[in-house]
Structure formats: structure tokens, C-alpha cells
Amino acid sequence: MFPLIDENKHVAQLLLNSGTCPRCIFRFCGVDLHAPYKLPSQELLSDMQKYLKTEKDELVLEVPNPPSKKIRLQELENGIDNLSQNGEDRLCVTDDGSIASRNSNLSVCNVCLGILQEFCEKEFIKKVCQKVEASGFEFTNLVLSVSFPPQLSVREHAAWLLVKQEMGKQSLLLGRNDIVQLKEAYKWITHPLFSEELGVPVDGKSLFEVSVVFAHPETVEDCHFLNKVCPDCFKPAKNKQSVFTRMAVMKALNKIKEEDFLKQFPCLPNSPKTVCTVLEIECAHGAVFVAGRYNKYSRNLPQTPWIIDGERKLESSVEELISDHLLTVFKAESFNFSSSGREDVDVRTLGNELCDYHPFQRQVGLPASSDGEDLRKINESSDKIQVRDLQLVTREAIGHMKEGEEGKTKTYSALIWTNSAILKEDIEFLNNMKDLKIDQKTPLRVLHRRPLAVRTRVIHTMETHYLDEHHFRLHLKTQAGTYIKEFVHGDFGRTKPNIGSLMNITADILELDVESVDVDWPPALDD
């Protein structure tokens, strides 16, 4: 059953005669069923012509300099009474009295400029898919992004004004939202074809994007009159080659009065000689998030590259040892590395330190079968670090690492030196202290990169192990964000209380290890 209703017949005839393709006619008649749009262009045109075929004497049209044969097409006279200056030479009358366009049956649509014609056919879809397959990306779904020339909006506006006028003569209202948008119709047609050709679903939430950019040089001047009528809508931008962007054109179309538009632009415009051209077909992958845990066994390895005034202080870092291999696996263009906490260069992490790595523009995925191999390569590349529980996670899951940063706890082991000789009994009182609150003014060693403030932190538990008269080991469970070194030596009184003040001696820290970060994420994986 043909999707148009009797109320649309007159408008459909008018649009078809002016050079509008059947799919655009459906759009302006408010057809929101997907199936009719998916029919081949030639079949649609044939069906449209059959549907609109009318007895010779049902309509009357007054055409400038008509042929001698009398033509009774009065109904269409009203349809073009506002279009005389631009529409005179687009309609002609055939020998049998029917209305036809001067354009051929498959002329370029005067509204979509061919977008809903040959660019919806399987041949074009196959060409795009060949580009996708040659890109080297690995994907399980995709999102299709299309960019149309801004002058399409001008032509659509002209068509809408015409159709609105004709529908008004039948006491029918037609708002802009009643028209099916070009992108919607295009996706209805092409999404199933892309899925069939590539064997994956088209999903608006996919991280893999295929973008197609169209242009139409022949009609590029269609927008120029808007700059004269609404100059404030077109502002030069540094990153834009032209002021006639789609957003600027739409802003002007929403602002211009209908009568001013009709004085400047034909309703409907002529069909162009050429269809749109494809400027580019690009494939891109959004950020991929990889999470895991690492151990650092070196006291001479920073977490991130240590570069001061352009000079590298140490040859490598945790970030580089991990990322070098993942960059290769993912063929990523760039990456960000973040962790739950930041240990000093001389601090080892022996427990379950968290790390998050997210490369961008992924080309090759991380198949389940290769996870262990990639992990092994990282771990065999250096004896300074080890990585475990490496896994792909979602963007939303990354929030687990940052949630309650000051609420989570961390466990440390510190080797402490005292200037005065001590006995085992001198340190045992520390074992009984629970949830000790301390005030820490920003340490002098980080004052150059952190604002001056006093931060209250909690030492939840302490456990001492006596070694000799000048050394003991202290195991602490603290609130995350506690400066452990300063808690031991006091930082010239900037941390109160501290181990030195509690014991009434001078104390300093010789070694510090992070034993655990108490966050149950990412989930542990089987060996």
C-alpha cells in the first residue's frame, strides 16, 4: 500500500514536478514508516508516478505561453501563484496533457541534492564499507555520522514553506517538526545496509565511528543571501574555513521572516546538474579504558616521567613501562595514565596499587585470548614492575577509582630511625592508638605544586616491630592522602602530632612501602 494519503496527493504532485525525489516527498508529507524509504530509487519513482497518475481533465494549470492544446489544471494554479518568478520554466506539458519536469526521471533531487538517491544505494554503501575494512580497526558495532552541506538546510526551508502553504489551503497545519529530518531518513535506509555488509549492528552508543562528509560545490552560493539579511548570524571562526556553517545557517533560517526569504530564494529551487560529492570517509575509535593493578619494586622509579625544565631525571617510569606495550597492542595515537594515589620515586608498591590507562583511537582490540600474552610481555619487559588484573572497563567504571578518594584506606610499612636509643617498651604504646587525628600543613617538598592548606587526616591503626636501639618498623593503616613521611619526622612542626613528638625524640623515615590500596576494583582475575 502506497504510504501517501489523499490530502498529500496535490503536494506530492507539485514536489515531483519541481524535481523532488520520492523519498523527500515522503519526508515533507510526514511519512514516518521506514519501509517505503528502503525501496530502490527507480521503483519508488515508478510507484510515485503511478500513484499520482490523474485524468487529463481533473486539474487546470495556467502556464506562461501555453501550447495551443487547452489544459485544464486549475488546482495547480493555486499551487504556484507565489512561485511565478522562479517556477515558470520548471513545469512543462507533454503531448498527452500530463505534467512533467524538464528534468529527466532520475534527475538530481532539488532538495536533498542526491543524498537520498544514489548515496542510499548498495553500491555506495559497499564503497564506504571497503574503506572501513581497510582502516584496520577492530569493532563489534559502529555508529554512523553524516555531515551534509549547509545549503541543504536552505533548500529544505524553501520546500517546507511551499508545502506549508499548500497544506494551509486545505486547512491543514505543517510545522517544521512534522517533516522527517534528512538524517533520520538517511539512517533508516542505510543502517540495515551497513549492518548487512559489515556483519555488525549500528549502535548509537558505539565507540567506533564511521563519518561521511558530503559537499555540493554547485550550490554553495545558496546560503549567501542569508549573510546579507542576517549578518549577525555569521561570525568568522578560527577553526572554520567558511562562515556558512550548518549551525549559522540554521540560526539565520530561524530568524529570517518568511516573506524576506521568499523574496531572496526560489520555492522550489531548480534541480542541480550534479549530485553531492563525498569529501571524506573517516573511521575513528573513542577512548578505550584499560584498568589493572601494578607493583613497583624499585626505589629509583617515578610513577610518571620525571622531567624538569626539559631535562629527564630518570630514564623510565611506571607509566612508560606499562604504556609502551599497550600502545603497540591498541595502535593508539595517544593515552592518559592515572592511578589511585601517587607514590614517591623512592617508595615501593608491594600490594595492590591501582592504575588506569586509556588509549585513544584504538585500532586493534584486546581479545580475551591475548590478555595473558600482553600481560606477560609487560611483566617480562622489566624487573622494576609487575602488572596484574589487566582488563577492559567502561568509562563509567573508571569512577570507582576516584570515588571516595579521601574515604578509602591505604596500608604502609615504614622503616624508622631515631636519634636516641630506644627499647621495645618505648614504642609499644603506638600499638594501642586508634583513629589518631593529625593536622598536616602542605609539606614543604610539595608546596611548589600543591596549594597551602591544613588537612586533617586519620591514622587508623599502627603496629610496631622493634629492630634495634635506633630502628623499628611501623605498619600503618591510614586515611588516603596522608603524608606518611611527614607523619614520621614532623616536617619542622608542620604535621602535628607526629612520631617524633609522640615519642619525644627526633625520628626520620628510611624506607617506605605501600602494601595495599583498599579499593575492591578492578575485580581480581583468575591467573
TrEMBL record:
Gene3D superfamilies: 1.10.10.2050, 3.30.70.2510, 3.30.70.3190. Residues 289-518 form the Pus10-like C-terminal domain. GO terms for molecular function: metal ion binding; RNA binding; tRNA pseudouridine(55) synthase activity. It comes from the Eukaryota. Its EC number is 5.4.99.25. GO terms for biological process: tRNA pseudouridine synthesis. It catalyses: uridine(54) in tRNA = pseudouridine(54) in tRNA; uridine(55) in tRNA = pseudouridine(55) in tRNA. One of its GO terms (cellular component) is nucleus. Residues 109-283 form the Pus10 N-terminal eukaryotes domain. It is found in: Cytoplasm; Mitochondrion; Nucleus. Keywords: Coiled coil, Cytoplasm, Isomerase, Metal-binding, Mitochondrion, Nucleus, tRNA processing, Zinc. Its main location: cytoplasm. InterPro entries: PsdUridine_synth_cat_dom_sf, Pus10-like, Pus10-like_C, Pus10_N_euk. Interacts with components of the microprocessor complex DROSHA and DGCR8. Belongs to the pseudouridine synthase Pus10 family. Protein with different functions depending on its subcellular location: involved in miRNA processing in the nucleus and acts as a tRNA pseudouridylate synthase in the cytoplasm. In the cytoplasm, acts as a pseudouridylate synthase by catalyzing synthesis of pseudouridine(54) and pseudouridine(55) from uracil-54 and uracil-55, respectively, in the psi GC loop of a subset of tRNAs. tRNA pseudouridylate synthase activity is enhanced by the presence of 1-methyladenosine at position 53-61 of tRNAs. Does not show tRNA pseudouridylate synthase activity in the nucleus. This is tRNA pseudouridine synthase Pus10. It comes from Jaculus jaculus (Lesser Egyptian jerboa).
